[in-house]
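Check out a protein:
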Amino acid sequence: MNEPKPSRSCIRGTHRRTPGVVLALPLVLLLAVLASRSSQAQAFTTFNVPGAGTAAYEGTLPVSINAAGAIAGFYLVTGNVAHGFVRAANGKITPFGAKGAGTASNQGTFAVAINTTGMIAGMYFDENNVYHGFVRASTGAITEFNVAAAGKGKHQGTIPLSINAAGTVAGSYKDASDVYHGFLRVAAGTITTFTIKKAGTGAYQGTKAVGINTAGVIAGTYQDASNIYHGFVRAANGTVASFDAPGAGTGAGQGTISTSIDPAGTVAGLYTDSSTVAHGFVRAANGTITTFDAPGASKNAWLASMVPGNGIPDQGTIGFGINTVGIITGTYVDSSGVVRGFERTANGTVTSFDDPDAGTGPMQGTVGFGINAEDIAGTYLDGTSVFHGFLRTP
């Protein structure tokens, strides 16, 4: 099962300070809203990686959780250097780093996905700010890899974003012209690349693979020559179906963005409308698309000014992770700019949640990223805008 990955976050600190990969894809974003807190019967376990920074926009950021309850993510230390970590179901935390990872600001190791066997996929930024992929076995052994056609310049390279039960990794690479292309790497190491035919060929346009399920079906997004986003599903045999959510805007920086896919081929994500307000969507394997909004999600234009110039929505509803029975977790921002988590059941019921220790100031609050059968993993920003990890259980 795959979990979602954050991209250039709408949370200001993540947007400014973490590399564009984890999100280098202006696709999984993070914000969202709720007008009032709901009653919370769930239990929250807060955790921090030892050594994580304690200044604003430093700290612990879980991204993915597997069926056994193991959590993978990264943490930011003083100076905004990233290190990967895995937290076992019993709470034991193991930090790790790729050998070639840089040690300057915005460099380091970013773990973004964990599969059912405990294998972790991610990327590291070297001392020249080039991206490289890695797979970490459950034993701790790290194998680094690069797509042969990936660029070797600053902010170019290989960007893994998902791993399935077989150990196949899906992601994107950025070539020497700053154009994105999709790739998949099987456990044996063979890499296959692909590009959606309608994808743009200008800088920062192209094909962005985001998730892969147990059947080898890949979900992703491509940006066309007009800088409009469209979703796609690529079957294991290479056949591609593109799609747009009803109501998706057709202006530059608007459109449909996939964030995750479940074993049945159901895709979760978001679309931005003509006002660049984000809305959630679910696309069934048969192509039927259902849209949704978290109750209370803000549509106030003033929120856009809080994260200027990032080209992503700063208001509305964003679905990040989807589990095996179609439950989605994500985030939204309320009219005060506070970030709130949500869970949407397969029948469409949306429930909000907030970590009890989350801050209540603008761009503080709770973000749900990964979900397994019952539990949600994510991060919250406290009253001083420091990131902390959380595990929400029923």
In short: The domain at 12-388 is CATH 2.130.10.10 (Methylamine Dehydrogenase; Chain H). The radius of gyration is 18 Å.
